[in-house]
Amino acid sequence: MNLNKRFALQATAIAAAALVTAALIGCGKKEAAAPAPAAAAPKADPLKIAFAYVGPVGDGGWTFAHDTARKALEKEFGDKIKTSFVENVPESADAERVIRDMASQGNKLIFGTTFGYMDPMLKVAPEFKDVKFEHATGYKTAENMRTYDSRTYEGAYMAGVIAGKMTKSNTLGVVGSIPIPEVIRNINSFTLGAQSVNPKIKTRVVWVGEWFAPPKETEAATSLINGGADVLMQNTDSPAVLQTAEKLGKRAFGWDSDMTAYGPKAHLGSAVINWAPYYIKATKDALEGKWATGQAWWGVKEGAIDFVSVAADVPADVKTKLDEVKAGLKSGSFTIWKGPILGQDGKEVLKKDEVADDKFMSGITFYVKGVEGKVPSGKK
């Protein structure tokens, strides 16, 4: 074989080997290619939560406290939830309409924040089985409706402890809203707290028949002061009572929220409600599929009730007494409604060392000894 032909055969072999190597390398690259990324799971829609408010969010008291808790709820759960509210919903047929509309708009957790929404919510609940209904301060439940409440009487008692020491006339005044057990219980507890440090105490009550009615609240507070009361408490939703005390040179308390700013000279302290712990629990239950009907009644022990912003001129021994009461309520070592407790007529409603259970507390429709006047007729 001549030299030129040998070179040609070698060149052909080298070229063939190069092609085989390239093919093998190409196959290797193909086998090593990364798999396509899996499609991201679709993001779950947020849980829609609605709140029905009996008053305006700026009432400075009851509704303000609920809306503050709603905001805390948003902060806690972020984009997992979406909240909305309707304010100034009257305790009437309008409540049923608003609550039904909330359910129709896809809200799966609905909070009705006043006693008068109980029957409207109970009527709407069976129509929307996939919706969880939460009713504040009521006592009726359904398969998809439960109740929640705060032990406001604990805050009222703590206010009473201060009132009993700060009064000069030994006459206290309370502006009441609607004569249901919740409100009567608070008037009595306020009186018991005051009597625990000052047995001479008597309490006068003026009822306004509404939760939020600043002009009526102002008129009632003025009437009480003109009648000799120099320290006022309220179970209404606006700061009008505190503002009236400020104007007339008397003392008063904030109710449901810290009302210091509305009457800084008159303000002795505020009995406040923190709804956030319960709202967070209820929302977590709904998100995790653990929600079930029932009844919850939370107080100082659960972080739902507190007494804050005590005035600087309250004596140290009174502040110490307040701290002791608060600590006892938190630990369960102190009970407000423990006998002997007398009714207004002087008869025992609780015998010595007898402790009222929640059934008893929920049915209080009488005044204790020391509260003047008659309980107006009202429905539970």
Describe this structure in words.
With 380 residues, the chain is α/β, with parallel strands linked by helices. The chain has two domains: 47-151 and 276-301, Response regulator (Rossmann fold); 152-273 and 304-362, 3-Layer(aba) Sandwich (Rossmann fold). Helices cover 39% and strands 18% of the residues. The chain contains eleven helices and 14 strands. The strands form three sheets. A six-stranded parallel sheet has the order 2-1-3-4-5-11, with helices on both faces. It has a six-stranded mixed sheet with strand order 7-6-8-9-10-12, with helices on both faces. Strands 13-14 form a two-stranded antiparallel sheet. The longest helix has 30 residues, at 3-32. Residues 1-32 have low confidence and may be disordered.
Largest sheet: 6 strands, parallel
The DSSP helix count reads 11
- Determine the oligomeric state from the structure: single chain
Cα gyration radius (Å): 33 Å
What's the rounded overall pLDDT mean?
91
- Largest beta sheet: strand ordering: 2-1-3-4-5-11
Per CATH, the class of the largest domain reads Alpha Beta
The portion of residues assigned to helices is 25-40%
The total of beta strands comes to: 14
Compact description:
By secondary structure, the chain is an alpha/beta fold. The protein contains eleven helices and 14 strands.
Ordered list of secondary-structure elements with their pairings:
Layout: H1 3-32, E1 47-52, H2 62-77, E2 81-86, H3 93-104, E3 109-112, H4 118-124, E4 132-136, E5 145-150, H5 152-166, E6 171-176, H6 181-195, E7 202-207, H7 214-226, E8 231-234, H8 240-248, E9 251-256, E10 267-273, H9 276-287, E11 295-298, E12 305-308, H10 316-331, E13 341-342, E14 348-350, H11 358-362
Parallel strand pairs: 1-2, 1-3, 3-4, 4-5, 5-11, 6-7, 6-8, 8-9, 9-10
Antiparallel strand pairs: 10-12, 13-14
